């Protein structure tokens, strides 16, 4: 399938786990892919190499998405290398579990800077290019805690809930230019967590899911590809859960 042929996608945090699966599937569908990373250069370059080996086009771009100036330079580099930008996947995030009463303003800043300001910075820099295509796509990835709340995840949930509001607002503001903006909220993706902890708690964890298993990156990427394609052109401002039935609200 080559329904994304000729399009250019930026996947933040694209060097590992869910981001890597998204980057590789978008490339398989025909898109040229900008694989963003913060510190995992080796992983990002491995994703690029895998895409190129399969006949696709990709480059790795280092950028701290919490820094607006750095993001602007990255997007300018992508435009220079690929000629434009059609798809933005806000995947990168920073979430750690801690009781809110034990958290500090420094904890709040770290997660808000990455999860909320990261999406703000990337969407703001990418916006003019997405509007210019007449078919721009923004897909933001987050945990289901941003919709239903979860003990110990108040900070990440609050930051990502702000991203949901951003996507809904951009869907209204940029819809007349053909841009869609959606959010995908996830249950627990086992590869994104410490393997020892997941294995030690697996039996207890899976009981929270109607489908008795934890999520995999391959469960997420196909929905991103749909929303990025023409088949998703009338889906916007939505929050779609990929969560194995963890929540059904």
UniProtKB/TrEMBL annotation:
Ketoreductase domain boundaries: 7-220
InterPro entries per the UniProt record, alphabetical: KR_dom, NAD(P)-bd_dom_sf, SDR, SDR_fam
Superkingdom: Bacteria
Family, as annotated: Belongs to the short-chain dehydrogenases/reductases (SDR) family.
Name listed for the protein in its UniProt record: NAD(P)-dependent dehydrogenase (Short-subunit alcohol dehydrogenase family)
Organism: Bradyrhizobium elkanii
């Amino acid at each position: 399938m080559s329904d994304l042929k000729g399009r250019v996608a930026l996947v933040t945090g694209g060097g590992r786990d869910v981001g890597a699966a998204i980057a590789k599937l978008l490339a398989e569908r025909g898109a040229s892919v900008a694989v963003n990373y913060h510190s995992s250069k080796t992983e990002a370059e491995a994703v690029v190499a895998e895409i190129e080996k399969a006949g696709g086009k990709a480059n790795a771009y280092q950028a701290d998405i919490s820094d607006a100036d750095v993001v602007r330079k990255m997007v300018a580099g992508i435009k220079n290398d690929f000629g434009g930008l059609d798809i933005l996947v806000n995947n990168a995030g920073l979430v750690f579990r801690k009781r809110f009463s034990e958290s500090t303003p420094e904890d709040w800043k770290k997660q808000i800077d990455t999860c909320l300001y990261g999406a703000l910075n990337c969407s703001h820099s990418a916006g003019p290019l997405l509007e210019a295509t007449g078919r721009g796509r923004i897909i933001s990835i987050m945990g289901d805690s941003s919709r239903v709340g979860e003990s110990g995840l108040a900070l990440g949930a609050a930051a990502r809930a702000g991203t949901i509001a951003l996507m809904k607002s951009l869907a209204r503001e940029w819809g007349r230019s053909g841009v869609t903006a959606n959010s995908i909220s996830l249950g627990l993706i086992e590869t994104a967590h410490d393997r020892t902890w997941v294995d030690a708690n697996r039996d207890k964890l899976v009981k929270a899911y109607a489908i008795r298993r934890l999520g995999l990156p391959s469960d997420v990427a196909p929905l991103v590809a749909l929303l990025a394609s023409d088949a998703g052109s009338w889906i916007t401002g939505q929050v779609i859960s990929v969560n194995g039935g963890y929540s059904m609200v």
